[in-house]
# Entry
Amino acid sequence: MRGFVAALAAVVLVASCAKGTGDPQPVATPPAGAHAGHVSAQPAAPLRAGERFQDLSMPARYTPKAPNGGTDEYRCFLIDPELTSEAYLTGSQFRPQNADIVHHAIFFRIGPGSAAAARKLDAGTPGDGWTCFGDSGVAGDTWVASWAPGSNETLLAPNLGYPMPPGSLLVMQIHYNLLATKGADQSSIRLRLNDTTEAMTPLQTSLLLAPIELPCTAGESGPLCERSAAIADVTARFGEEVGGREEQLVRLCYQGKPPVAGPTQHCDRPVSRPGTVYAVAGHMHLLGRAVRIELNPGRPGARTLLDVPAYNFDDQAIRPLAEPVALRPGDTLRVTCTHDAALRAVLPQLRGTAPRYVVWGDGTSDEMCLGLVIMATGG
# Structure
């Protein structure tokens, strides 16, 4: 379960923004009442000293097909930024061409040493790209950019970025949600690259994951309301790596205790090395109600880094902190998520889907509890 193990470590994930004097903030606020995926992208901010734009696209239009009887496909496409010298990724603007089916997108950097393996995987898979539930499927990948509804351009402070060595490739992973409609897609991304690498601070993002133990409502019944059947269903649709994630999370977060079903779950992760947090974000699916990230909860000096008491799937923009926050070894980060199974009968996309005991899964009708802590290491 390479992808799961990597997710529990400090993994570079999405772009961030440090707030300081004159530092621009992310532009990611959709009009009230609109579905963020259908809002026209706002213009990118002007280039700053040393920066340039580079536009990259899927090689061709792709028509997703959900495998294994599911309603979701995760498809990876290999794209080449053709870097001949080191650069830093200081911002990104994903452009979903068919927002009706694009659930989210993630970009993995493939270092020069793994480029041949990525090309071999791409060439050996029929059609465009390859199916990639969990992660990119390429060893040594690093998550350097992402998009979810509510995001527009993710812009970093000028001195912050993700290292892009010469010869690096990018894997564009797109989660296609086919619950409500189908169609073709040819999405693209605009990278903001800084070729002046002096005085740049490299970023990484830690992932905070918590289990999902959400039972059927009192008025629901069916075979998938049994926890074991629900886990087996996730495994059948997405494979052993994703299907085993819930039990892995329970062992990690419950510390050997049996899971306790309920709408709210949390997980604590110890901080092993010093760092500075610049931004945070939370990700759940359609049953999400609230998400929170805390530093040292229940201890003197505890701080709340993210508090979203009314989660909106169409507003998942990265949230910069008002001031950077220092992390020290011995600190604890906690992510807490609340989900509501009653939303299954209300939301158009989920209405009519089979009642289920919801556990961690990659599908739109499954759930996640994910906190993103965007930081630089060292102190």
